[in-house]
Design a protein that fits this description.
The chain is globular. It has a single domain (about 40-145), classed as Dimeric alpha+beta barrel (Alpha-Beta Plaits). The protein has a four-stranded antiparallel beta sheet with strand order 2-3-1-4. The model is unreliable at about 1-10 and about 10-20 (pLDDT under 50). It is about 45% helix and about 20% strand. The chain has helices spanning about 1-25, 30-35, 60-80, 105-115, 115-120, 140-145, and strands spanning about 40-50, 80-85, 95-100, 125-135. The chain contains six helices and four strands, in the order H-H-E-H-E-E-H-H-E-H. The longest helix is centred in the N-terminal third of the chain and has 24 residues, at about 1-25. It is of the alpha+beta class.
């Protein structure tokens, strides 16, 4: 019984110490700069890119649209409006790629997407969903620059 009481006491001390350390790590200024709520999270818009109604064949026009698409992705990332993007491999649902946009609403996301040449030309279309995730998501972009040898 004494061992059980001692073990319980030691566990309580460990939990208390961990809680105190966690509180010391919280940085309210940083949390505010990321737009984080009390859980360190925020709202985004998740964009699933799907084939559009314009079945433009491979060639110069399509290549030009996709160069503009990549340039637009870079511009949105630099401005902080896009925090994640990437293509999908072949899949049964024909998803082409995804974006996570750092915007307040689906309406804001729709406006931003009109700056993308492949969406504007209907080569790709978009399904939009409200998404709740870590407010620090955009930090990975800073690291990405350090590990990218050859830009797209």
């Amino acid at each position: 019984m004494k061992r059980l009481i001692l073990l319980s006491f030691l566990m309580a001390i460990c939990v208390s110490q961990y809680a105190q350390l966690a509180q010391k790590e919280y940085d309210s200024t940083l949390a505010k700069s990321y737009g984080a709520d009390e859980y360190g999270m925020k709202h985004y818009v998740l964009v699933m890119l799907i084939p559009g109604t314009n079945n433009l064949e491979k060639g110069a026009e399509r290549d030009s649209l996709f160069r503009g698409h990549m340039k637009n992705i870079g511009r949105l990332a630099e401005s902080g409006q896009l925090v994640l993007a990437g293509p999908f491999e072949d899949n049964v649902r024909s998803y082409r790629g995804l974006f996570i946009l750092n915007v307040k609403s689906i309406a804001d996301a729709k406006d931003l997407l009109q700056s993308d040449p492949v969406i504007k030309s209907k080569v790709l279309d978009a399904e939009l969903y409200e998404w709740y995730g870590t407010a620090a998501l955009g930090e990975y972009l800073k690291l990405q620059k350090s590990i990218t040898k050859k830009p797209h």
